[in-house]
């Protein structure tokens, strides 16, 4: 058990405002003695399933993530901090958010030297952070890898991922359903940074799903995950495509610029699907006041889930909804489509663009 002070800030400048985050709890595999209220409450051992949220041995978790220069990344960090604060037995040691690979490596080395119990790490570059993560694992520290995978699976005890390919599939299938029977439909795509594997995965999933209903992407441009980049890319797309039926925009942050370009062009003959799941996009979907009618979630709760898993792993607990008595090696979160019909379910965990 570490004697590090609760929520000590390593290399941090200033502080982050931590909002409340509602995340469903897990239950333990360990039965606790209890008097059943009826036959349906009892277990074979005569007790009830105990709660993993009940305080246990103190767990010191080191947390490191890239700089919050994007709404989704900011939400990742805020959710992780809020989740750590929700447990009285978690001491979080947060490193300064950075896009400097060498600095992030030194932060993990500091966590190792300090003897933390676990490290939750969203690496700026998964390949570059692999070796130091392996070093932490060899030192007996539980490593939970978030979002960007290491080159070596042995560098983490557990990995939490979004589903980039699945985002494209979800967006494509939604558009197929909306355009059912329209064989000559014109569908456009506004991607993120084309050189990134995540963008390539999203585009591949989108193309594969559209292929299921016989539609191909008619017009495609790439932006850079920024508002300005989204506006420029969308303006170019609209000039090149005088008639469209649907647009999928990979990222809701750049979508702010995309919508600005659409409004400036006075175009409304198509509908648009967003990506990632920002709060402002969801509010727009609720209001039904733009061409945007859906978005596909890329969860910003991944690091918060990582905090939960790190705590369970150090305390030798598991996920009671599984028969397996160990925490899984890899968990990939689903990419659901959010529409006006279900937006209230997803808005509480959405991020602000």
Topology:
Elements: E1 9-10, E2 27-33, E3 47-51, E4 59-64, H1 71-85, E5 90-95, H2 101-114, E6 118-121, H3 126-138, E7 142-146, E8 158-161, H4 164-178, E9 187-191, H5 197-212, E10 217-222, H6 227-240, E11 246-249, H7 252-265, E12 271-276, H8 279-287, E13 292-297, H9 302-314, E14 330-332, E15 337-338, H10 343-346
Parallel strand pairs: 1-5, 4-5, 4-6, 6-7, 7-8, 8-14, 9-10, 9-11, 11-12, 12-13
Antiparallel strand pairs: 2-3, 13-15
Please supply descriptive tags for the structure shown above.
about 350 residues, alpha/beta, Rossmann fold, 2 domains, seven-stranded parallel beta sheet, six-stranded mixed beta sheet, 10 helices, elongated, disordered N terminus
Structure description:
With 353 residues, this protein is α/β, with parallel strands linked by helices. It folds into two domains: 173 residues, Rossmann fold (3-Layer(aba) Sandwich); 134 residues, Response regulator (Rossmann fold). Helices cover 36% and strands 20% of the residues. The protein is built from ten helices and 15 strands. The strands form three sheets. The protein has a seven-stranded parallel β-sheet, with helices on both faces. The protein is elongated and about 60 Å long. The two termini are 39 Å apart.
What is the gist of this entry?
With 353 residues, this protein is of the alpha/beta class. The protein contains 10 helices and 15 strands.
Q: What's the overall geometry?
A: elongated
The low-pLDDT segments are: 1-49
Helix residue percentage: 25-40%
For this structure, the CATH topology of the largest domain is Rossmann fold
Q: Secondary-structure element sequence? A: EEEEHEHEHEEHEHEHEHEHEHEEH
């Amino acid at each position: 058990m570490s004697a590090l002070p609760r929520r000590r800030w390593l290399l941090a400048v200033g502080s982050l405002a931590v909002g409340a985050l509602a995340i469903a709890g897990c239950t333990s595999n360990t039965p606790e003695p209890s008097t059943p209220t009826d036959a349906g409450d009892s277990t074979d051992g005569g007790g009830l399933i105990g709660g993993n949220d009940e305080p246990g041995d103190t767990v010191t978790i080191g947390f490191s993530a890239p700089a919050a220069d994007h709404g989704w990344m900011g939400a990742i960090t805020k959710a992780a901090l809020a989740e750590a604060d929700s447990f009285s037995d978690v001491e979080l040691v947060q490193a300064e958010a950075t896009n400097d690979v060498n600095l992030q490596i030194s932060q993990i080395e500091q966590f190792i030297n300090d003897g933390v119990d676990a490290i939750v790490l969203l690496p700026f570059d998964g390949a570059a952070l692999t070796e130091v993560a392996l070093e932490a694992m060899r030192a007996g520290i539980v490593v939970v890898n978030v979002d960007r995978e290491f080159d070596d699976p042995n560098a983490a005890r557990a990995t939490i991922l979004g589903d980039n390919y699945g985002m494209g599939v979800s967006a494509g299938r939604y558009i197929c359903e909306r355009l059912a029977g329209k064989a000559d439909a014109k569908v456009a795509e506004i991607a993120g940074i084309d050189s990134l594997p995540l963008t390539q995965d999203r585009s591949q999933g989108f193309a594969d799903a559209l292929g299921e209903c016989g539609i191909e992407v008619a017009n495609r441009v790439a932006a850079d995950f920024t508002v300005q980049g989204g506006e420029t890319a969308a303006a170019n797309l609209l000039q090149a495509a005088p008639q469209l039926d649907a647009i999928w925009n990979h990222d809701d942050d750049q979508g702010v610029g995309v919508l600005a370009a659409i409004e400036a062009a006075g175009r409304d003959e198509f509908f648009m699907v967003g990506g990632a799941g920002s709060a402002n996009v969801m509010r727009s979907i609720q209001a039904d006041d733009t061409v945007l009618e859906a978005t596909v979630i890329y969860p910003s709760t991944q690091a918060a889930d990582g905090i939960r898993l790190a705590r369970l792993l150090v305390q030798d607990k598991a996920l009671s909804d599984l028969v397996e008595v160990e925490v899984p090696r890899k968990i990939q979160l689903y990419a659901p489509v959010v529409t006006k019909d279900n937006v209230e379910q997803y808005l509480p965990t959405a991020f602000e663009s």
